[in-house]
Amino acid sequence: MRDLHLAWGRRTYVMGIVNVTPDSFSGDGRSCCEAAVAHALAQYAAGADLLDVGGESTRPGYVAVETAIEIERVVPVIRAVRAQLPGVPISIDTYKPAVARAAADAGADIINSIWGAADDLLALASERAMPLIAMHNRTERTYPRGVVAEVVAELAAWASRARGYGLGPERLWLDPGIGFGKTADHNVAMLAQLERVTGLGHPVLIGTSRKSSIGRLTGRAVGERLAGSLAATALAVAAGADVVRVHDVAATRDAVAVADAVVRDWRPAGWTE
After folding, report:
1. Which of 2, 112, 137, 218 holds its CA 20 to 30 A away from the CA of 208?
2. pLDDT at 231 over 60
3. Which is catalytic among the residues 182, 211, 225, 253?
4. What is the CATH number of the domain that holds 65?
5. Does residue 151 sit within a domain?
6. Is 211 designated active site?
7. Is the residue at 6 inside a domain?
8. Interhelix angle for 249-263 vs 226-238, to 10°?
9. What is the three-class DSSP state of 256?
10. Kindly report the CA angle at 244 between 162 and 250, in degrees rounded to 5?
């Protein structure tokens, strides 16, 4: 994983979002390579530990783009960012094996799939020795046995299947999928019981930044949800989340620093009493 050693449990890592799309729900999509690369560099300068590059919007009601178009969007950005930031881990936000493979060839380190741990992605992650982030998702927002119980059971099943591909706990990261295939009440329940996900023994990524549930709770528009997003981030850190995927890196770093100090007994370099 490049030059950055991710020491799980010592602190929370911040993943900066880089959307190479014209229709991102958050309004931060960059549809040209130069703008997307500049945004990636800005996210890193603001304190991102990892960068997540995606070429297909996954907003509610999204329409999938052709694989070739997605590759055309992300590969030049990944290649350019890798050239300028050789030691920074880059993830490719895709569930399509062909896109993930092309991104890996361009310099991506991690596969971030919004549709979980499909066998073809597990095989690719094993072949390329890449971590796979498996996010829970559903087409229908129904959970007869309760949202938390069903999400945890599906994540645990993916973890078991991943072992068959030689992916140990540090190579399969779990994401409960806040805002994906869930109602606002489901999302609140997942955050309230996030310890059940972190208790599965895998690194856990959480993505609550600017989500519609925060908008419903606060009454804020997409561009005004920073405070609510930071509150969710702090709660996720308290529950043991390892990575937070965010739009607003600098503010999140501050929130994470305080939360990590309390929860993990973390201190910044040069700290003295």
Report:
1. 2
2. yes
3. 211
4. 3.20.20.20
5. yes
6. yes
7. no
8. 30
9. helix
10. 150
Residue whose tokens read 């069903």: 150
Report the domain count for the chain: 1
Q: Is 10 strand, coil or helix?
A: coil
SS (H, E, C) 76-100: HHHHHHHHHCCCCCEEEECCCHHHH
The β-bridge relationship of strands 172-175 and 132-135 is: parallel
Per-residue DSSP letters for 164-209? TTT--GGGEEEE--TTSS--HHHHHHHHHTTHHHHTTSS-BEE--T
Q: Is the pLDDT of residue 223 over 60?
A: yes
pLDDT in tens, 58-77: 766 667 889 999 999 999 99
Which residue segment(s) compose the domain that 46 sits in?
13-263
Query: Which residue of the set 245, 253, 264, 267 is catalytic?
Result: 245
271 belongs to a structural domain: no
Gap between the Cα atoms of 241 and 199, Å rounded: 10
245 is catalytic: yes
Residue among 3, 15, 5, 14 nearest 87 (CA): 3
Q: Is 103 a domain residue?
A: yes
Local structure of residue 64 (DSSP, 8 states) = P
